[in-house]
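Fold it.
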Amino acid sequence: QLVESGGGSVPAGGSLTLSCTTSNYANWCMGWFRQVPGKEREGVVGFYTTGGATYYSDSVKGRFTISKDSAKKTVYLHMNDLKPEDTAMYYCASSLPPCSKLVASGYKYWGQGTQVTVS
């Protein structure tokens, strides 16, 4: 089970942090995705909960980062310098390895999503 929180409305240039708490944490692949109506779900960041590389989409590289709290089984998406084009429903996803990085079809479990609006 994945539960996201932290969405909201912010002005352009602002920051927001999303949280995703999962019931399965250690040695899992996780990712953040976003989707706007009428478009395909876009991979934002993919990573392995226990070490390994983190993969960011070009559209967010340098602005978004993740952090992890293993004790809380929670991962965070820190979004800085937000732009109107970042407006979307953001989803947290997870799956067992091998990790699919930014490919949505490779993730089995999904949260309910949290809306981010940048104006």
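The radius of gyration is 13 Å.
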